[in-house]
Amino acid sequence: MSTEESTSELLAVRRRKLESLREAGVEPFPHAYPDVTSVADAKAPHEGLADGEETDARVRVAGRLHARRGQGKMAFLDLDERTGRIQLQARRDVLGDEAFERLLTMDLGDLIGAEGTIFKTRRGELSVLVTEWTLLAKSLRPPPDKHSGLTDTETRFRHRELDLIANPETRDLFIARAKIVSAIRRFLDDEGFIEVETPVLQPIYGGALARPFVTHYNALEKTMYLRIATELYLKRLIVGGLERVYELGKDFRNEGLSPKHNPEFTMLEWYEAYADWEVVAERAERMLRAVGEAVGSDVFAKPFKRETLAGSIQSRVGIDVLANRTLESLQGAMREAGMEIPDEPNWAALVDYLVSKHVEPTLIEPTLLHDYPVELSPFAKRHREHEGLVERFEAFVNGMEVANAFSELNDPDDQRARFEEQVRHAAAGDENAPPFDTDYIFSLEHGMPPTGGIGIGIDRLTMLLMGQKTIREVVLFPALK
After folding, report:
1. 3-143 and 169-304+366-473 share one CATH topology?
2. Chain centre distance of CA 27
3. Rounded (10°) CA dihedral 319, 323, 328, 331
4. CB contact at 8 A, 98 and 52
5. Are the C-beta atoms of residues 79 and 86 closer than 8 Å to each other?
């Protein structure tokens, strides 16, 4: 029998069981099962029981049937749910013949509820002596193999629900991700920030160098964009006097897939009035340490090292990018050094290439690269000491960027000139250049106080804290080809 025929027969058997249940007057998909205790909470008060000790403590648990052993007068069943697994002991003399026999016909993967008393077996396993049980949902497809789990990568990502059923470590990973987000909110709330929500669907995209997803708003007969960043709307709130704001939400960039890139990703951005990049850097280090502690990670336990961007490139490839401030000059320096020269549209893009190719992979310890060229940073404030630079840093760990921050540009005339420069880059073929945002200039003309801001990628942060190699492991339903 082929695998396809075998699967078809398994499905047919489960369908027949479904119909048998209905014919017997059993509802295979009831509406509710109230007053359920989690497995963790059911076990916690009784961990100290002696082997073989019984209690009168009644619990009601529910979950997915993972395994079954025994028949005749007694059977043991393993029940899985989010907080753990618990063993059920079913006895014919307690349940009665009909309920006991029906329980033995349940398939692995069926969802059941069980009520009974807690006891510890002679082998030392906390269990529930079942006094009554209920089918909560009939599973019409078999679960992944309980011994080998679900290992096929394509299936794991396309059907994450099966991955969560089969692999407890996957469940633990996404529970940890939730703790990371909660720890971030807790830290920023305690620091006096307020959480806000800004538009995902925008008439003008901006706040980053990236290509957007484009859609059409039928009611307005207008082209709209999924946001590539929350930055410009958040800084308009600073203008409005909110002074410390943050947003946790989805951004979308119409770019390729890689171990570090998913076109839909989660970002944290915060902005605070009267601060500069140094204040932001100090707060970010404290927050990352606190978040790491919340999930038991020491990735951010050490203070961040610091390097200038130009110095980091020169120390690794021997080229002074600030002494070669045109595309042609920098290409020439790279040619003399025997380096590959990519087809980049302008000097800033070529500098960014050098960082990505030759610097970023070497930054294993937590490191801040700072003092970026103004051409790479259309929204950062000019450096107070060095001409042609801005007060910006990016944070890197394990060869991956995890944060981008700067003293925010609040001079509307300078910002207008930066927008105009980006428009020229777009006309010359730079698809990542942001458009001119008239509303943002209008906002700045009302006065934005000195401000520091940062963006931190939640997906990448989770990768780092949980030791994952690819972003697809930490996104529940990643984009796939």
Report:
1. no
2. 38
3. 0
4. no
5. yes
Q: Give me the pLDDT at residue 481, please.
A: 84
Q: What's the fold here for domain 169-304+366-473?
A: BirA Bifunctional Protein; domain 2 (3.30.930)
Whether 394 has a binding-site annotation, put simply, is yes
The string of DSSP codes covering 274-288 is T--HHHHHHHHHHHH
- Write out pLDDT tens, residues 403-421: 999 999 999 999 999 999 9
The vertex-386 CA angle with 441 and 246, nearest 5°, equals: 45
pLDDT band, residue 147 (cuts 50/70/90): low
Say which DSSP state 50 is in: P
pLDDT at position 433 is 86
Domain ranges of the chain: 3-143, 169-304+366-473
Q: What is the CATH number of domain 3-143?
A: 2.40.50.140
420 labelled as ligand-binding?
A: no
Is 322 in contact with 390 (CB distance < 8 Å)?
no
pLDDT tens for 102-124 read 999 999 999 999 999 999 999 99
Give the pLDDT band of residue 261 (cuts 50, 70, 90).
Answer: very high
Compute the distance between CA of residue 403 and CA of residue 376 in angstroms, rounded to an integer. Answer: 15
Average pLDDT over residues 181-190: 98
Q: What are phi and psi of 265, to 5 degrees?
A: -145, 165
